[in-house]
Amino acid sequence: MKMRKVLFGILFAVFLLALTAGMAFAANSVRSFSVNAYQAESALEPGAVQWYKKGSAYYLFLPGCADRSNLTVWYDADSVLTFDGEAVPSGAATGAFANDIVNVACGTKTYTVNVLQGETGGVFLTTESGSMDAINADKEHKESGDITIVDGAGKSQYSGALDSIKGRGNSTWTLEKKPYNIKLGKKADIFGMGKAKKWCLLAEHSDESKIRNDLGYAYSRALGNENTSEVYMVDLYCNGVYMGAYSLTEKVEIGENRVDIFDLEGATEDVNEEDLDTYSLGGSQGLRTFNTIKYANIPNDPDEITGGYLLELEKIYRYVDEPSGFISSLGQAVTVKEPEFATKAQVNYIAIQYKRLEEALYSPTGYNTKGKYYTDYIDLDEMAQAYIIQELCENFDGCSSSFYLYKDVGDNRFHFGPTWDLDLSMGRGFENGLISPNLDAGDPSIPYIFSTYIGNHAKTRPSFLAQALNHPDFIAAVKRVWATRGQALAEQMIASIDAKAEANRATVVMDALRWSKFGASNAAAASDGYTAQIEAVKVFLNRRIGLINTLLSADTGFMRYETNGKTVALTTDRTIYLAGQTAVVMAPEASVNANDSFLGWTETPGGKTVQYVPGESVTPGSGKILYAVWGTKEQTDQKRSSLLDAIRNFFARIKAFFDRLANLFK
């Protein structure tokens, strides 16, 4: 009995000790902590910023507009918090965060808070659910809320209703840091980019320099593609949580301050009773079949359907999820971005126009069967500009995705732009097996667009811009645009990098610590990592300018191989040949089928007479295009048999010669 009392006493003492320790621990607890970074009246409003815990470290990531010498604090804690020894009740202001490190004490526990501040604009938004979880889990999930947008100095750009926020992007959506589309409650002119409701928040998670889109878009606008978006870096806060550095930019769409052409979608809405997205879908939905269209079953068309259309050349596997579009005769998937829900007549019209352009462009002569030249359908200088932008930046997607064309009402030609999605460019790319197998999009020493294919099906045709290089007048236009303004603007772009980088540095450092970039654990290391990224972009672009000068030199040439109408993998020679240098004629990658065989090459489109065979040496000069000559298996067998007979006959004559020679010395 005495032993039981002793054990009970020990257990009771342990219980009291644990209870006391738990109470002591609880008494040190801070359950939430926020500061007023911009005109918030509570911790739940846009403008409030929470502290951020990463591992065992605490951070306060502040936007450029925050006044660190006078921050109101809101918290839920077990006792009044002290900031470097100063007791500050929740709802009061403190100047403690003017310091880079602040010791926040709750009872006997101290939280060491690292304070960092950006210099760029800030976007503060709250969602109806108070969380981003559902949005980040489903790209199509939308939520409304409130939003405030300010520049780095605190000048308001917009404050009011957020109609919606949802996910965006394709491969970028699969990354940890998500990109978003936002729609404001009313049109606003954000950072001088023109009034609009719809905007994009690009995460730039793949681009550690955070500068590639800004540089490339500015270059595109200067070169002549004026409807290319502008970019403004911001710190993004969702429900008070710091999300990182984002590029706020214009959405690619038809509109007065965007692609300013006829609003065919609006005109279609005007002549139909229901919302366009409520009608059923028709045509080849979900299919990847060449020479097909898909559309919405909308009953009425406006009187004029020749424009305006905004089209995107797209990878074929992404195309299947879009409601409207077509796949060309050669397998190019084209999404009709606007009208997003296009009628059958509209898709059929624009598909025919594109196919006529494609037929002319992919013809050896540049003419289609209607006798129209490819420049009857597209502006030559605009196409030259598009090529220069893509090749200079060595854009991973090339012209296989995020590559836009538009056509206005009453205009017979397509136009290029806006330039879009350059985060995987300027040395950030890698091998793209879909459109350029065994070609590294991050190597500045090689011609890239030159070697790309129509995306994601049998590599039987060059990409849109690669095919254009088969036409001498296009090459002449590229040389003219590059010589008159392209190179000078590229050099100016490089000269602008340091100033852009410094304006973004503080924001990028915060992003690096938030998202574990550069392997950095402190601000100094993050800044060094950022410097290395910026230097890499400059080195890449300088090398790229040198490459393009070589590509466009009168002393260089290329070998191009065409399939001559057969559906077979292309043969690609990526060598830049100098004047007088010889090339070795290549063999095709594969036969067409069991009954067709490759015989050789000819310089004549559609020609049947073999002029060159693999292994033969030729001089490309300024450029040489060889067309495959195909025959039946029987023809090939006969040719092989004739060749073997000739070889046997040759050796028989040599043997006879030596036999006669031997007889002379008998």
Give a quick rundown of the structure.
The model is unreliable at 10-25 (pLDDT under 50). Helix content is 29%, strand content 27%. The N and C termini lie far apart (131 Å).
Features:
666 residues; alpha+beta; seven-stranded mixed beta barrel; seven-stranded antiparallel β-sheet; 11 helices; globular
What's the structural blueprint in terms of helices and strands?
Elements: H1 2-26, E1 30-36, E2 48-50, E3 52-54, E4 57-62, E5 71-77, E6 81-83, E7 86-88, E8 93-94, E9 101-106, E10 109-117, E11 121-127, H2 133-137, E12 143-150, E13 156-167, E14 180-189, E15 195-202, H3 212-223, E16 231-238, E17 241-250, H4 264-270, E18 281-283, E19 292-296, E20 309-314, H5 316-319, E21 325-327, E22 333-338, H6 344-361, H7 380-393, E23 403-407, E24 415-416, E25 431-432, E26 436-440, H8 464-468, H9 472-515, H10 523-551, E27 556-557, E28 559-562, E29 577-578, E30 583-584, E31 596-602, E32 617-618, E33 624-632, H11 633-664
Parallel strand pairs: 4-10, 11-16, 28-33
Antiparallel strand pairs: 1-2, 1-5, 3-4, 5-8, 6-7, 6-9, 9-10, 11-12, 12-13, 13-14, 14-15, 15-17, 16-17, 18-19, 19-21, 20-22, 20-23, 21-22, 23-24, 25-26, 27-29, 30-32, 31-33
Q: Can you put this structure into words, describing what you see?
A:
This protein has a seven-stranded mixed barrel. Strand 21 and strand 22 form a beta hairpin. The chain starts with a helix and ends with a helix. 29% of the residues lie in helices and 27% in strands. The protein has eleven helices and 33 strands. Helix 3 packs antiparallel against helix 9 and helix 7 packs across helix 9. About 2% of the residues have low confidence. The protein has 666 residues and is α+β, with helices and mostly antiparallel strands.
